[in-house]
Amino acid sequence: MIRVFTMKAVGKDFLAASWSPYLTEERKKLADRKKGERERQLFLGAEVLLNLSLQQVDARIPIPAKYKRNEHGKPYLDDRQDIYVNWSHSGDYVICAVADREVGIDLQYAGKEPKKSLVRKLLQPDELHFYENIPESERQRLFYEYWAVKESFLKVLGTGFATPLDRFYVEFRKGSDVSDAVKKNAMKVPYIIQNINHKQYLCRLLSVKDEGYTAALCIESLDKSLQEGELFSTLEVEEIEE
């Protein structure tokens, strides 16, 4: 089971009484520390979407869900150790993945030209070579695709940026997925080449409604005999309107 949900967060007031059932008291307190209303609403919206997503998959746990984080900040549900969750926010939107295996997801607003110093910091030599040899008009989008894939991989590992970026790299290859979530990116499938552990990870770029954004999902492959298409062929990014 792999499902992905998204919601526009900016413009909503998640401290209104109608959202209260989807927020923990701890999240509300932490939101007070956020600078600016936009950042506060995105922070609250991420937990709201988590709980709406758990309802959508019929997780059968009390809402708002209780969760703990590992030493690097990755969340794990208290009441369902067989359900894995991860979320992200960027720009105006939040996104959440719910799966039956370790999962990482990342969302990036792709509308800002990246600084050259950031490009060279994020990309490894082979990635930078690929980046510099595509048409200049395509580079900005590709940079944020690299970023989203890398963050989703670091999230599925559960380490975040505690794992050095030179321990892995992303290679884009042609794919044949047919689901609406990935069909726009069928010619650009990310593969992780890593020397961190002996596990296999599968990643995909996701098509979201607002084309100014890019998102990536990465999961741990529990069955190496299972074809990638079987995991992703029915994947849809489901939009929640509340």
Automatic annotation (TrEMBL):
<feature type="domain" description="4'-phosphopantetheinyl transferase">
    <location>
        <begin position="103"/>
        <end position="179"/>
    </location>
</feature>
<comment type="similarity">
    <text>Belongs to the P-Pant transferase superfamily. Gsp/Sfp/HetI/AcpT family.</text>
</comment>
<keyword id="KW-0808">Transferase</keyword>
<dbReference type="Pfam" id="PF01648">
    <property type="entry name" value="ACPS"/>
</dbReference>
<dbReference type="InterPro" id="IPR008278">
    <property type="entry name" value="4-PPantetheinyl_Trfase_dom"/>
</dbReference>
<dbReference type="InterPro" id="IPR037143">
    <property type="entry name" value="4-PPantetheinyl_Trfase_dom_sf"/>
</dbReference>
<protein>
    <submittedName>
        <fullName>4'-phosphopantetheinyl transferase superfamily protein</fullName>
    </submittedName>
</protein>
<dbReference type="GO" id="GO:0016740">
    <property type="term" value="F:transferase activity"/>
</dbReference>
<dbReference type="InterPro" id="IPR050559">
    <property type="entry name" value="P-Pant_transferase_sf"/>
</dbReference>
